[in-house]
Amino acid sequence: MFDFLKQLTDPQSIIQYGGLWLLLFVVFAETGLLVGFFLPGDSLIFISGLLCATKPHLLNVSFPVLVALLITAAVIGNMFGYWFGKKAGETLYKKKDSILFKQQHLITTKAFYEKHGGKTLILGRFLPIIRTFAPILAGVIKIDFKLFMFYNFSGALAWILGIGGIGYFLGKRFPQVESYLGWIVIGLIIITAIPVIITYFKNKQKA
Fold first, then answer.
1. Which residue, of 65, 92, 93, 138, is most buried by count of CB atoms within 10 Å of its CB?
2. CA atoms of 133 and 103, how far apart (whole Å)
3. How far are the Cα atoms of 49, 81, 140, 159 from residue 23, in angstroms, in the given order?
4. What pLDDT digit, counting tens, does each position of 150-192 carry?
5. Closest Cα partner for 82 from 28, 136, 122?
């Protein structure tokens, strides 16, 4: 079980050992399950786009099909998160911290909502932790479902096409970039974590 969880945090292992279906499950889980915040969504989507260009046999689908499937997984994931948040309601704020749940993650996402409103569902796609808790919080505060679905689909489209498209373009244009995957993943983690860290400390100062 530990080895399996370890593989779930390594985007290359997910694609190499789990293939397309595990890739889709991870994208769904990170955007739809409360415990999915630790999964490597950004780097996974980037690498899948890159490998679709350099090693198409690994996923065995064309890039347009890959994009369509990833968007579907991301949209369904957010819908599941919204449903969970709506069912859980305000009781989620009383949930005690555990290994896989921290109240601070919910508070950070709420602060992001207060600043950006419904656009959090689009902007949050590019930010770890927030992309997991944004649809859940949308359900808790009962955002109109039609409006939620507009932001949901728009965010999924921008996220998958943006990050996956960059990976695919680089793979087609510069196939040798695959040799630097480790550094690229580290760079993505740092870049996407900065806004979350800033929001966290601002919120802490206000408190």
1. 138
2. 11
3. 12, 18, 28, 15
4. 999 999 999 999 999 998 998 888 877 767 666 776 776 676 6
5. 136
